[in-house]
Amino acid sequence: MTEHEPSSSEKDWGNLRFTPRRPRYAESAPEDNAQARFVVGLAVFVVVALLYPWYAYWVQTHLLARDVQQATRAIDSQLRHELRGVGEQARKAAVQSPQAASRRRVRGVRVMGAMATKGVPVVIVDMGDASLSEGTAGICSQAPSWLGRPVSGMTLRVQAWRGRAPSESIGSVVC
C-alpha cells in the first residue's frame, strides 16, 4: 500500500456527507410546545377559578371571626370598667348613712298640683323613691302654695302623679 492509496476502511469513510441532522418533528415542535403551554395555562386558570370562591369564603370567615373576637374583647373591657365604677358607687352608697339616703329621697318629693274640695283637699304628688310617710313633711310644706291657705292640722288626700296617665290615690297625710 502506498501512501496515496486509501485502505478499504478509509474508502468507506470517503463517501460520507456531513449535513446537519434534522429531526422529523422539527417543523412541528414549536406548535406542540405552544399547545402544551396553552393547555397547562388553561388548566391552571380553571383550577384557580374553581378554587377562588372557597378561598375567598375561608378568608372572609376568618376575618369576621377575628373582628368578632376583637369586638368582644373591647366590650368585655368596657363592661369590666363599668362594673368597677358601679362597684365603687355601691360601696360609697353603703358607706352613706340611711338617714342621708332618706333625706335624698325626701328631696325628690314634689307637689305637682292640688284641688280644694268641700271635703278633704286633694294633692297630686310626684313621690320619686320616697314612701308616703317619708314624704309627709315635703307635702305639707309645698301644699299651702298650691291651695292658697295654711294646711297645718289638716288632712290631705294624696294621689301619685304618673305623667300623662291618670293619678292614683296612695293614701292621706295629716299636716
Topology:
Blueprint: H1 8-14, H2 29-95, H3 98-107, E1 110-115, E2 122-126, H4 132-147, E3 155-162, E4 165-174
Parallel strand pairs: 2-3
Antiparallel strand pairs: 1-2, 3-4
Word description of this protein:
The chain has 175 residues and is α+β, with helices and mostly antiparallel strands. The chain folds into 2 domains: 26-95; 103-174, no CATH class. Helix content is 57%, strand content 17%. The protein contains 4 helices and 4 strands. The chain has helices at 8-14, 29-95, 98-107, 132-147; strands spanning 110-115, 122-126, 155-162, 165-174. The chain has a 4-stranded mixed beta sheet, covered by helices on one side. Strand 3 and strand 4 (165-174) form a beta hairpin. Helix 3 runs parallel beside helix 4. The longest helix has 67 residues, at 29-95. It is rod-shaped and about 165 Å long. The protein starts with 7 loop residues before the first helix and ends with a strand. The mean pLDDT is 82.
